[in-house]
Amino acid sequence: YLHFNQIETLEPESFTHLPKLERLFLHNNRIAHLIPGTFSHLESMKRLRLDSNALHCDCEILWLAELLKTYAESGNAQAAATCEYPRRIQGRSVATITPEELNCERPRITSEPQDVDVTSGNTVYFTCRAEGNPKPEIIWLRNNNELSMKEDSRLNLLDDGTLMIQNTQETDQGIYQCMAKNVAGEVKTQEVTLRYFESPARPSFVIHPQNTEVLVGESVTLECSATGHPQPRITWTKGDRTPLPNDPRVTITPSGGLYIQNVKQEDSGEYTCFATNSIDNIHATAYIIVQALPHFTVTPQDKTVIEGQTVDFPCEAQGYPQPVIAWTKGGGQLSVDRRHLVLSSGTLRISRVALHDQGQYECQAVNIIGSQRIVVYLTVQPRVTPVFASVPSDMTVEVGTNVQIPCSAQGEPEPVITWNKDGVQVTESGKFHVSPEGFLTIRDVGTADEGRYECVARNTIGYSSVSMVLSVNVPNVSRNGDPFVQTSIVEAIATVDRAINSTRTHLFDSRPRSPNDLLALFRYPRDPYTVEQARAGEIFERTLQLIQDHVQDGLMVDLNGTSYHYNDLVSPQYLNLIANLSGCTAHRRVNNCSDMCFHQKYRTHDGTCNNLQHPMWGASLTAFERLLKSVYENGFNLPRGIEPRRLSNGYALPMPRLVSTTLIGTETVTPDDQYTHMLMQWGQFLDHDLDLTVAALSEARFSDGQHCSSVCTNDPPCFSIMIPPNDPRVRNGARCMFFVRSSPVCGSGMTSLLMNSVYPREQINQLTSYIDASNVYGSSDHEALEIRDLASQRGLLRQGIVQRSGKPLLPFATGPPTECMRDENESPIPCFLAGDQRSNEQLGLTSIHTLWFREHNRIATELLKLNPHWDGDTIYHETRKIVGAEMQHITFSHWLPKIFGEVGMKMLGEYKGYDPSVNSGITNEFATAAFRFGHTLINPFLYRLDENFEPIPQGHLPLHKAFFSPFRIVNEGGIDPLLRGFFGVAGKMRVPSQLLNTELTERLFSMARTVALDLAAMNIQRGRDHGIPPYHDFRVYCNLSSAQTFEDLKNEIKNPEIREKLSRLYGSPLNIDLFPALMVEDLVPGSRLGPTLMCLLSTQFRRIRDGDRLWYENPGVFTPAQLTQIKQTSLARVLCDNGDNITRVQHDVFKVAEFPHGYSSCEDIPKLDLRMWQDCCE
């Protein structure tokens, strides 16, 4: 009890050591000031009295006010203290006063410390000054811990608040901070760093930048700081180390951080912080991820569709994170069925639209930042089956006139009108025209045009058809051309024979001197009968042309309006005279199918008598079949585009060479990740079993005998490929590439003995149309005898030189110098002789021919051992039958599934037996365009691999060095390296923007100082030569949509750049040539074909199979046991049996496999057991 004394001051530690003090009475004394902490640590205090003293209540006493408030709040102690001064608050309880009443001021920093770099033993000063009321106390923190000046004599706190550290040590480094504190509050300075260095140091990061997400419009900082000695300089770059843009929004903070305000979407990306001093530089990277509200980049539009169609509503959006696209209908969820599909792109696709699908649809783009939405409306119109508005009726017309047959229809969607004649679809040409409403016009009607015409109206709902019969009346009157028949046919025979003889002399009396010679040589017919038939066709057509010229000269007028009228040119009896004198009728074959013992078991070499009701179906040296009627400028024989100034649908047709360079040629090749190069090679070998067009026998024009490549005109048989200006490879001022037309069929396809009408030009297929191994055995008796070994009477084929392996090569061809001896500096080795005259075209093809020639002799030898009583003919025909069946099985069971995929194989359908109503003949469209898709599978190199699947010493061959080079097989390792290069190397992938490699478009048959040929341009020109209708007509034939604009092609040709190229080249989608269009179609998933190409190929292969009486699966062709063995066949087994030393292959040589793990020993590949062919004698 210290009350009622004269106490004026209390020392700070007066009560420090009295922890049990409970009562302290200090009232009625003279105490004016109390030092903070005077009553600290009095845990047992119950009562404290300081009233009736001379207390000065200023900022220094605020600590007591806080203590008294604490007592009051806890309720553990009672206290009393009143202010005496200042007078305005005299008598107030100390516990109730506030800092504001006393004008107290919390500290504020007036001088901040800075980072310091120091070396050992030096003195450091960290400045810190602060003001406040009362005067703040300065406290220093290191690494967030208060520094004690007493514990370390090196530390000193100067009067102005500066921290002085003497004789610095490594332990002094860290983060320092100054705190200024008084009764009104406290404040801290920024943190600063003391960096300690024994010696100069490379930079190291103190703060690494971190990936940061930020919304558009906000600000962001990427922190970055580093230590080092000297202090590193901080710089920043964006992306691939490009300097930061000069943008006022972007600044670098004093500490080194990157600060961007008002962030934009383009600020998103990678940023790199560099810390650099004189010792080194380091960097660290972080991303700014700019989050943005979704915004639409592709917006859907209202659509009106017909019931049953498919409709797409494209909807795409951007933002960050990437928005999710969601669709609703009428505010609710979409129907849960397979018809409604939201694609990965955000497009809403409704398949088989129903009437109840009509309504309002909403596309929503949603991310975590927000959402956007857009509304569209779908209108659905009901379907209406086509109904005829006008129908045709039977009519009889005069020969040589033009006739229009009415037909029109209505429906929803609007129907497409097509016309068929005798089952073949009519196409737009100089002969036929179908008006927009559907009326058919036939120009220059002849007896060939007689027959039943069917008008078909088709839309997606269904179709209707109506037919009529057209009869042609041929009055028995003379014609304008009759007086000129005799002189014209004499002139035609003379000029055609002169040109042919000149060509033969040029080709066969010397080595080939140009790519033109090579092309002509390897296509020149070997069979004299073929030569005579082609000659007759040329004379027949040349005679008509000469008569036409004479008539035109006599009339002295321009016959543009009547130049189509070939049917009114000469009388029927004179037409027969022309046929007789030209040789057409003399070379008509008389079929003899009477030897049924033979025909029931074996094929003829020329394909006749396969179909016993129609013996010429599928036979060699017959006209190609057609899916659609031919398209010629004049309806008879002139190709589309032969007159460059003539417009088609408002546009001139492009030069084929320009189409090739713009759209087809490529130096880039994408390897096929599934299939080997053998896929291509089997396709070419198969093609050479099915079709070979007979080329013109002359390289010179008939009119004056000048060579086609030198005159660059379109006088028959020339049809030169003109070279556009600025073509990338024109040399020596050449204006054109060599090209001659295919030979026409006599009277063009007419089979009647009385030739009383002119038919549109048709071309000759020199081969049988069946898969019958004609590429091994030939397509005529003449060819077959030439390659048989008749001397041994063992049913063998002739063989050539025997290699070290003990296995023979093909025999050499005999006769005049051939295409294989074009360069006497390379080798004097001539061409090999095989069943197809193109066997030497390139070394890969030659190696496959060699393989199958050996397969025949292998099987024949085994059959003779099993049946020693068989004669040579029996062994030969039985072996030929087995080899043909092997090829059929490999093609349909192993090869076609890769080409067609699952969709195409379903389209092809399963084999249901022989159908004698099916014509197996090869169609012109297949031979001239569709099956040439294989050109897109050709690699620019032929790979040659040794037994370890490494390149042989002579290396791989650029394709242009593999043409007509049999010496390389003889001198450079035989056929095995080439065969391994086919099944051991990936093929070329079919990519619409990478079609034919430049070895085929720029170096085909190249020779020194000449213009090489271009395979793509030749394919297009050949299509026009053969009157192949445009691509659009085949879309309609294959039930695809009719394309009136290039945008209409987007489902089949998705690449807009390709569609734009087609538009620049052709002007109208109705003009596009078939070959290039088929090549640029997108592939049907799982296949190597586009939709139109798949339609055409599946149609042809179904006909080949179903119309072949001797198809290997047709019951009775083989016994069940034999058929089982045929189905063991694989190309892998043929390679094992007939290669020189092939010991390991993959089971399926068309599929890519990794060597050696994906390969098997030949011992594990199933074999054909020929014991099933042994005669059993009872």
Helix content: 10-25%
What integer value in Å does the Rg equal? 48 Å
How is the CATH topology of the domain at 774-778 and 878-955 and 970-1164 named?
Myeloperoxidase, subunit C
CATH superfamily of the domain at 774-778 and 878-955 and 970-1164: Haem peroxidase domain superfamily, animal type
The overall strand count is 56
- If helices are DSSP runs of H or I spanning 4 or more residues, what is the number of helices? 24
For the record, the CATH class of the domain at 774-778 and 878-955 and 970-1164 is Mainly Alpha
Q: Give the terminus-to-terminus CA distance.
A: 147 Å
| Mean pLDDT rating | 89
Q: Which parts are unreliable, with pLDDT below 50 for 5 consecutive residues or more?
A: 556-564, 749-754
Shape estimate: elongated
Structural class, judged by helices and strands?
A: alpha+beta
CATH architectural designation of the domain at 774-778 and 878-955 and 970-1164: Orthogonal Bundle
Strand content: 15-25%
**Largest beta-sheet details:** 6 strands, mixed
Describe this structure in words.
Residues 107-193, 203-289, 294-381, 382-471 form the Ig-like domain. With 1178 residues, the chain is of the alpha+beta class. Among the domains are: 23-102, Leucine-rich repeat, LRR (right-handed beta-alpha superhelix) (Alpha-Beta Horseshoe); 105-197, Immunoglobulins (Immunoglobulin-like); 201-290, Sandwich (Immunoglobulin-like), CATH 2.60.40; 299-381, Immunoglobulin-like (Sandwich); 384-473, Immunoglobulin-like, CATH 2.60.40.10; 774-778 and 878-955 and 970-1164, Haem peroxidase domain superfamily, animal type (Myeloperoxidase, subunit C), CATH 1.10.640.10. 23% of the residues lie in helices and 21% in strands. The chain is built from 24 helices and 56 strands. Strand 29 (340-342) and strand 30 (348-350) form a beta hairpin. The longest helix is centred in the C-terminal third of the chain and has 37 residues, at 872-908.
